[in-house]
């Protein structure tokens, strides 16, 4: 009978390159994941196969190599940089007599450590329970067989079935509570939409510097560190932008290569801040050798959650780590900002980024010179109330020319409140 070992903090890392698979995992990134989980990687085993073994994922020879590494380094857990099936995990553990976790299990462990808010903890627990549901049987192998003999015959897997029922009940309870969170978030988003407040959501590969940049832009103090998934819970801040007015900035969880679908589903409530955003700031680690691949991974997740149609401004961060590179803003053929090069740590390029954000959000800003007569006092008062008056020029005729700059939607609402049609407003044409 195999009793499942406890998890330890000394790990052997296993990475296999499969020649029949495209887009294999990055062993360097996996080591960063393990470090972020607070586990000491005392050894590693690598190899190459055409395809995974259905039973043990690796071959008998490679498994023996892992067993020797466990003995040599006195390791108590083996971490695979791959997604293992429940039966593969169970079979490997039975062979090695050592705790085994796959890539998803490591990510879930990091998420469990990082969650701080009630919502974040619920999302992590849901992902863990759904992951555990397919692996529950291996922890109860002593209940798999019916006992024989008088007085010993019974229902067999009663304890296992009880655990499964409790697991399903807990998952159902968490889903209900998360649904309540979704409704609350939805109400907040509807309120912002009614007030016409645009939302700017920061997205990007994990450890690209999103939280550091978020702190710079919003003068906040969100936790930021040089580790994967340093920030898990979403953070929302409000700030004022010239020509745009109030804007909501949202910092979201970082993405990662081959992000498990269970995690995408569990964090859908958080990611909805991204799907309803007015503009996405896609933060990219410009110094990362795999930055192009990371960009593709983020775009895949954005497509998966239905956010691939939202306007994007790429922000290439960490230019302070590049040689002889100055901050700049790249524009497309129409002159629209599409990419900003900055350093969130030193502050280089942040002014250009700030202007690019304003420009992208203020694409529907109108700039008018309005000619007002003595009878247009209400319109004049509303323009001042909106804080959109740039200058005011008085004429001997008693008329006033007001230079105003505001969003097109605000201009329409303002005219409606003043009871004035757009056709009746007298505008002067000037070079601006």
TrEMBL record:
Pfam families, alphabetized: GTP-bdg_M, GTP-bdg_N, HflX_C, MMR_HSR1
Classification via InterPro entries: EFG_III/V, G_HFLX_dom, GTP-bd, GTP-bd_M, GTPase_HflX, GTPase_HflX_N, GTPase_HflX_N_sf, HflX_C
GO annotation, cellular component aspect: cytoplasm
Compartmental location: Cytoplasm
Gene Ontology MF terms in the entry: GTP binding; GTPase activity; guanosine tetraphosphate binding; metal ion binding; ribosome binding
Domain of life: Bacteria
UniProt entry keywords in alphabetical sequence: Cytoplasm, GTP-binding, Magnesium, Metal-binding, Nucleotide-binding
PROSITE patterns for this protein: G_HFLX (PS51705)
Domain Hflx-type G: 198-365
Cofactor(s) needed: Mg(2+)
Gene3D superfamilies listed in its UniProt record: 6.10.250.2860, GTPase HflX, N-terminal domain (3.40.50.11060), P-loop containing nucleotide triphosphate hydrolases (3.40.50.300)
Residues the entry annotates as binding Mg(2+): 211, 231
Nucleotide-binding as UniProt keyword: yes
Binding site residues for GTP: 204-211, 229-233, 251-254, 317-320
Stretch forming the signal peptide: none
PANTHER family per the UniProt record, alphabetical: GTP-BINDING PROTEIN 6-RELATED, GTP-BINDING PROTEIN HFLX
HAMAP family the UniProt entry points to: GTPase_HflX
Family named by the database record: Belongs to the TRAFAC class OBG-HflX-like GTPase superfamily. HflX GTPase family.
Function: GTPase that associates with the 50S ribosomal subunit and may have a role during protein synthesis or ribosome biogenesis.
Subunit description: Monomer. Associates with the 50S ribosomal subunit.
Name of the protein in its database record: GTPase HflX
Provenance organism: Marinobacter adhaerens
Lineage: Bacteria, Pseudomonadati, Pseudomonadota, Gammaproteobacteria, Pseudomonadales
């Amino acid at each position: 009978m195999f009793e499942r070992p406890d998890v330890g903090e000394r790990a052997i890392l296993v990475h296999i390159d499969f020649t029949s698979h495209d887009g294999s995992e990055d062993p360097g990134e996996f080591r960063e994941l393990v470090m972020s989980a607070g586990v000491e990687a005392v050894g590693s085993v690598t190899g190459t196969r055409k395809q995974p073994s259905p039973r043990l994922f690796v071959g008998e020879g490679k498994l023996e190599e892992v067993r020797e590494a466990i003995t040599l380094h006195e390791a108590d857990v083996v971490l695979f940089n791959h997604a293992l099936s429940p039966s593969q995990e169970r079979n490997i553990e039975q062979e090695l007599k050592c705790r085994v976790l796959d890539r998803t299990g490591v990510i879930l462990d990091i998420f469990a450590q990082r969650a701080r808010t009630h919502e974040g903890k619920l999302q992590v627990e849901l992902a863990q329970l759904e992951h555990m549901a397919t692996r529950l049987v291996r922890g109860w192998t002593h209940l798999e067989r019916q006992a024989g003999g008088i007085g010993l015959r019974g229902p067999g897997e009663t304890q296992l079935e009880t655990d499964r029922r409790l697991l399903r009940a807990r998952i159902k309870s968490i889903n209900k509570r998360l649904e309540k969170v979704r409704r609350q978030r939805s109400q907040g988003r509807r309120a912002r939409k009614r007030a016409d407040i645009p939302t700017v959501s920061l997205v990007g590969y994990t450890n690209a510097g999103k939280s550091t940049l978020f702190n710079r832009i919003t003068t906040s103090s969100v936790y930021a560190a040089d580790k994967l998934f340093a920030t898990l819970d979403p953070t929302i801040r409000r700030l004022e932008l010239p020509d745009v007015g109030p804007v909501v900035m949202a910092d979201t969880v970082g993405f990662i290569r081959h992000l498990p679908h269970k995690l995408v589903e569990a964090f859908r409530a958080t990611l909805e801040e991204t799907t309803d955003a007015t503009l996405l700031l896609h933060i990219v680690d410009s110094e990362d050798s795999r930055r192009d691949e990371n960009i593709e991974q983020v775009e895949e997740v954005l497509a998966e959650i239905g956010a691939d149609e939202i306007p994007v401004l790429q922000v290439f961060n960490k230019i302070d780590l590049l040689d002889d590179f100055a901050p700049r803003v790249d524009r497309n053929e129409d002159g629209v900002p599409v990419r900003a090069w900055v350093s969130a740590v030193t502050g280089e390029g942040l002014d250009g980024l700030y202007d690019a954000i304003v420009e992208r959000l203020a694409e529907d800003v109108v700039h008018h010179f309005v000619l007002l007569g003595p009878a247009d006092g209400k319109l004049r008062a509303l323009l001042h109330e909106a804080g959109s008056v740039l200058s005011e020029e008085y004429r001997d005729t008693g008329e006033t020319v007001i230079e105003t700059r505001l969003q097109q939607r605000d201009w329409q609402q303002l005219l409606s409140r003043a009871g004035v049609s757009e056709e009746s407003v007298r505008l002067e044409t000037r070079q601006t």
